[in-house]
Amino acid sequence: MAQREGFLFRKIDIEGQKKSSNSRSWVNLYCVLNKGELGFYKDAKNTSTPYNNEPLINLSRCACDINNGYKKKKNVFTLKTNDGSEFLFHAKDEDDLKSWITSINTSISEHEEIGKQGQTHPTTSSTDEGTRRDGSRAGGSERGEKSDRADGGSVRSDKGEKPEKKTGKKK
């Protein structure tokens, strides 16, 4: 698993905001890459509380690359998330830049590979109205089927509704 931690300067460019990335300042954050996620912290001592309580970035379906379009600083790379947000990162030197990009891209690849391995063929669920993939009907325990209760009454439940209760007074 790709892991890395260290300080990077960061700027956020959130999709849909009219402000350019020039209008926001760079923030020096302690970044932790672990298990397909990237977290940001004020410093190395306080990695239990994220910076500004920001959630970890899930690197699934993200893209990380050198940002040749940003001319004000050298050693800048971007991380584009699947929700359209774009993070700019400024590394201390070219070696640090390459190391972070390699680590993040390795983590993205590993995370996507794990996701592919974890996928199974579509399975039936309770929303399938009891029909299996092969077209046969599931047993009588599926929703919408009649079942006998121990007290002799029967209950029918359709589409997730609660079963009707028998009315009767207890003695």
Strand content: 25-35%
| Arithmetic mean of pLDDT | 76
What helical percentage do the residues reach? 10-25%
Largest sheet: 7 strands, antiparallel
The rounded Rg comes to 26 Å
Order of helices and strands: EEEEEEEHEE
Main sheet: strand order: 4-3-2-1-7-6-5
* Number of β-strand runs: 9
Distance between the termini: 65 Å
Poorly predicted regions are 123-131, 140-148
Number of helices: 1
Gross morphology is globular
Kindly name the structural category. Answer: alpha+beta
Question: In brief, what are we looking at here?
Answer:
By secondary structure, the protein is α+β, with helices and mostly antiparallel strands. It has one helix spanning 94-118, and strands spanning 4-13, 27-34, 37-41, 57-58, 63-66, 76-80, 86-90, 147-148, 154-155. Residues 123-131 and 140-148 have low confidence and may be disordered.
Describe the structure.
It contains 1 helix and 9 strands; from the N terminus they run E-E-E-E-E-E-E-H-E-E. The strands form 2 sheets. A 7-stranded antiparallel beta sheet has the order 4-3-2-1-7-6-5, covered by helices on one side. It has a two-stranded antiparallel sheet with strand order 8-9. The longest helix is centred in the middle third of the chain and has 25 residues. The protein starts with a strand and ends in a 16-residue tail after the last strand.
